[in-house]
Amino acid sequence: MKRNFILIALLVLFYSVKAQPSADTNIPLSRLYFHEALDAAQHKLLAMDGKADSLFTVTPNNGLNNELTITITDGVDKLSAGIESDSLLDNNGKIKFLRGLTELLNGYMFGCRMDSVKYATLPDILDAYKECMPLEREGESIENNIYKYPYETGNLLLHTIAFSQNTGFERSYNMVLLKYCDKYRNKALPLLSQNPLLPFTDSLVAQIAKRDPESLYTYAAASNLLASKIRNNPDSLVRIISRMAQLKSGRQLFPFLDNLYRGKLSFENVSAVMDDDVKYYKLLVQTAIDYADMVRRRDTPMAAQSLRIKIQKKAADPFINTINGLHDVNDERVRFKILEPFTPEELYYMAVEGEEIIYTSSYVKGVYPRIWQRMKSPKSDSLLMSVRFDHFKKWIKIASNYNTLDDFLKRMDNNNAQLLMKAFVNNLHNTESLEDAVDVANSYASINDPAVRNLILNQVQWNIQQAVQTNNEKRKDIYSILNTLFLSMDSSNNINVSEVLGIPPVYFMPNKSLQDASGKIIVQQFFYGDKDGKSVFSSFLNSFSKANWKITNSEEWVTVSSTKGVPVIIYANKPLDESKSLDAKAQSDLNDYLFNKDISPTIVIHRGHSYWLPSTIDQLASSAKVVLLGSCGAYQNLDKILKICPAAQIVASKQTGSGLVNGPMISLILESVRQGKDLNWPQLWASLSKTLAKNELFDDYVPPHKNLGALFIMAYKKLQEKNAIEAGQVKK
Fold this sequence. Notes:
This is CHAT domain-containing protein. The chain is mainly α and 732 residues long.
């Protein structure tokens, strides 16, 4: 094999040195320039791999590299020699094909650099050029050839002077544009906007209406020639979209597109409820159930994503925002009065689509219990059937995060609960993101029923077997990690998660790892200026012993420094008036101070309600190695935090965060690091379990070694890095 490679290399060297026909071909001066330009294009192409040699080594495949090298050298030389010796071509004809060949190579080179052309296509592109040359020479159309070539090949050919005057150029060009629109579907409308009178405009617009109706709506609302073509299109779906686009209320109508098209709804039906928040939301939910039913029948509803976005917006405003805003009102009849008109199904969608903004208490005390109160027979499987199992995995995730999953599963027959959880666990490898897999990991950690846990574990292990049998690496990776994590939850299995999964330690955080170059441990705490924030801040300051700590005040923050043991410095913004955004300003100024002084926190603590948490995450230092989230529902935000701090150890509450838990926990952690101790999470948790035995909310806090969702994300990314290294795709 090595000998063959050397032989090929020598042949390539011979041809590349030769580069053009020798002097005995008597190239006239009138064409010499075009041969030299072609020769320059060949050398420029060979240099694309960054090496000034005669080999084209741009891919990991040596065989392909050799083929491409010979094509660029021998193949192009033979073709140019054939052009030069063709007695049927006059001087201008030879110049046209030589110049066209140079343009072809330059176009290929540009396409490769822009990742729009694959390196491996060069031999086929050159063959296509050779096939079309005789047709052009004889004055015949190249249309049939262009029809059979891929878009990239046809596009390169038509962008050379060689075929610019071909009798079939216009039809060929239109054909290439159509192939472009089919290959790059998101660019079809911009192209039609520039070329609205193409012969296929009407038929293509009709296709786009089905696959991307929202984009078509946008273009139909414009005032240009394409918009006019769209409005005059005979297709019934296009006409409905065009009608919407001409109305001020068009965006309100758009989520109902599929039902409008199928005749289940009329424009008048939607317009009649548009100004009533309750009725409009109800119609949105009913439409979502209709669409879910279509999906169940393996049909694809149009505008489904637009419908979901509209439900999210309408659920948020006014309904979720109202009950969130009344979180300080103890009378639930007052706080949740706005939920009175809604059915169980409508409340289900409010929870699912409002996941990102709903407060813990709004879900636990408001939406969730009212679902069952509104049902004659409060069976959870009946609820899922009534919504056609739409977003059921997200529902299970939310229920597990808020510790209502056990209650939910107990509201259905055991056999149905088993089938549901199997469906929850299956097909995690068939989605582009890891969201479903993380949801399964997090949910497992929240389930207390041993039978349900065993069911999930068995289903995970069944998926591993299926992955091995089908040689599905992604499936095997996902389920193998889940299997390790779930087995590690049982201490009798003696599984060291860090060791098995190759991720940083999760059972402890070494004290040394928290220290900066000068041996200091930097802590940043975020406080907010509402009534609770001010109270918590006062308790925070009073928790420090004067024997071991010193407090220094500045205008916008305090600095708490240890006076004994390991130097620990805590920076905490003051909870200044949030109504004037003074707390936000204090945080911003403190962040600037830390940045300018090159001070990097390794412990970050959030002190505040869940609605303040996004602000803390936005300001989270990437240097953080331990993150404490003392807020309600903070467990939901693991993925966001790990994108900023990929190896952070996270302590969070799945449900109602409590100052009575946060205070003792933070004090124990800070004292431990001051004393030079590692943060041994199992030991710390055992100690806190005794201290907080009477506080039932402590059970909802999750330590890093039990934070399965975070561990899954870390482990999967680590495994992909390892696989890439083994495959030679990245360097160690």
